[in-house]
Amino acid sequence: MPFGPIARGARRTAGRDRCSATRSTDSARSLSGGAEANVVNSGPTSERVYDVLRHRLLTRVYGPGQRLDPSILARDLATSITPVRDALHLLAGRGLVDVGTGEGFHVVQIDAPALVDLYAWNLGVLSLALRSWPRTVDRSDSAFVEPDAFAGDTASQMAALCLTIGQMSSNAEHRPALEILNDRLQPIRMAEASLIEDPGSELRALRTALAARESRALRQLLVPYHRRRQRKAAEIVRVHYRR
């Protein structure tokens, strides 16, 4: 029987495959910090636990570096330790939780250089996706997010925009990559909102270009969008840690 990192990797892969079809829309539409009950699905206990913990991580209920004790979380969620551990391993696979040998689970931490790299990677994947446009979009697909139907705060709207760009790519790897990036960036986007001047104007321009399916215009807008945040990375990290 496999054990250690191999077993954890297998569980993460299986969990991602099992849950990806139902989580795509949540990645774009359920990030604005609504009532926790609204994000809990009616599926098996392991999925319900995953949904609650993911929601808490994305909405900064747990702070960077905070220890996530499975036994305490299990009592809080009225479940056993096993589904909590499974959920934490899946969340580690999405870059939201750190797992250290003998150190347990902790909320992932980030510093300014790492955040600069994360912004660069997000821009890189978006640029790759835009270069793979266009393809016919099936609007009956429940994961498709209409550009004029974005709702919520600026962080959630940006997540929806990124997910739509990924969905319209002819490369099927772009959307899942952007789903994970959305999760990793969601707490950061919430922190950056108080530091970026007039983020609403940025979003309106991006949404207009997206609605017109103007990939070149989107690329031209996304570069300064990310560079502006890279320049403020140290300030954003400080706000992120203050919560």
TrEMBL record:
Sequence segments annotated as region (Disordered): 1-42
Name of the protein in question: GntR family transcriptional regulator
SMART domains to which the protein is assigned, alphabetical: HTH_GNTR
Coiled coil (residue ranges): none
Biased composition (Polar residues): 21-30
Pfam families xref list: GntR
Annotated keywords: DNA-binding, Plasmid, Transcription, Transcription regulation
Domain HTH gntR-type: 43-110
Domain of life, source organism: Bacteria
Molecular-function GO term, any one: DNA binding
PROSITE patterns noted in UniProt: HTH_GNTR
